[in-house]
Amino acid sequence: MTAVDHARQGTRVTRYWPALAGVALAAMSAYGIASGADVAAVVAASGFVYLAAAALGSRAAAWPAFGVSFVLIALEKVVPAADPVATMSAVALVLAVVGVVRGRLRPGSGLPLQGAAMLVLAPVALVASQAAPVLAGLLVAGALLAHAAWDVHHHRTGRVVVRSMAEFCVVLDTVLAVLVLVVTFA
Questions:
Q1: Nearby residues of 81 by Cβ (< 8 Å), 6 or more positions away
Q2: Distant-in-sequence, close-in-space partners of 185: CB < 8 Å, separation ≥ 6
Q3: Where are its TM segments located (predicted)?
């Protein structure tokens, strides 16, 4: 391989790192799961990240919000009593209040729409986490695929979150949804 070939390969990896990270996290998240209930918190995280960015008025805030959701989900693996969906929901409520106080009610595609999405995604995650395996798998996969479409829209419009987050999420959501369906029907 020549130096030019190495440079081109590095450019591809640099360009596609969000998608590659999405595939890697989906695979890690799905490893060893018994049903969709095991990854239901990812559904709540998908809404949490967007709501946080909208409430704070910063598209770049999506990545730190993702970091918070990642830690909360990982914490549940170590401390089974920890409930990442409830914690993310509580923090989302605080962020929504902060957003309202800071005047983030406009545009409508920001905090109002992201808040509505969180009001749908968090209960779906809560129900899925307690549901029978087939129902949990269908709820989680359906919510993730719906959020993947949400990610595509936000990637194309450049709204609410940075494009790298939208790209990462669309891949994570899609791959994880497919893996959940495979586990559900295997």
A1: none
A2: 137
A3: 16-33, 61-79, 85-105, 117-145, 165-185
Cα three-residue angle 100-146-57, rounded to 5 degrees = 25
Q: Which residue is it, tokens 């990610």?
A: 151
Query: Which one-letter amino acid corresponds to residue 17?
Result: W
30 Cβ contact partners less than 8 Å away, ≥ 6 residues apart: 39, 176, 179, 180, 183
Note the pTM of the prediction, 2 decimals. Answer: 0.90
122, 79 in Cβ contact below 8 A?
Answer: no
Q: Return d(Cα 163, Cα 128) in angstroms, integer.
A: 29
C-beta separation of 102 from 124 below 8 A = no
Which residue is associated with the tokens 């949490």?
48
Distance CA 135, CA 106 (A): 37
Task: List Cβ<8 Å contacts ≥24 apart for 82-88.
Answer: 84/41, 84/44, 84/45, 85/40, 85/41, 85/44, 85/122, 85/125, 85/126, 85/129, 86/126, 88/41, 88/44, 88/45, 88/48, 88/122
